[in-house]
Amino acid sequence: MRLRSFGSAFGIALVVSLMSCSNGTGDGAVTLGPPSASSSVTGEGSVTRWLGVLRTEADVDALDADTAAVIAVVGGSIVVSPVACFDGLPASFEPGAYLLGVVADSRELLDQLLDQVGRPAIFEGQVRTICLD
Questions:
Q1: DSSP letters of 57-87?
Q2: Cross-strand pairs, 79
Q3: pTM
Q4: How far is Cα of residue 80 from the mean position of the Cα atoms in its chain?
């Protein structure tokens, strides 16, 4: 019973966080942990970071179980966000989909985090984040 309460609370917190994307469209981004001073600010309202995408889904709720597993490993380096919040992703990613990934300020750190997660990334690269909290 206690685990069910945690799951419900986590789900509610995730939904509330997803509503906070600064572009005002109602789509949200969850990036736990702010970019460090070494992240590149590429213009007002955007930051360049390294991203490893683990999964994409049309329905953000379909990411819940994997989100809980990944956050347990990488903590604040997780991102659950609309694909449209990133510039530099492959064109094959549906713009209306959501992604689950890991973010870092360097390629080396991204590789370390992905090794810790132990799941293959479907994309790794430097992207511009355009939805900020």
A1: ESSGGGGHHHHHHHHHHHGGGEEEEEGGGEE
A2: 31, 101
A3: 0.69
A4: 3
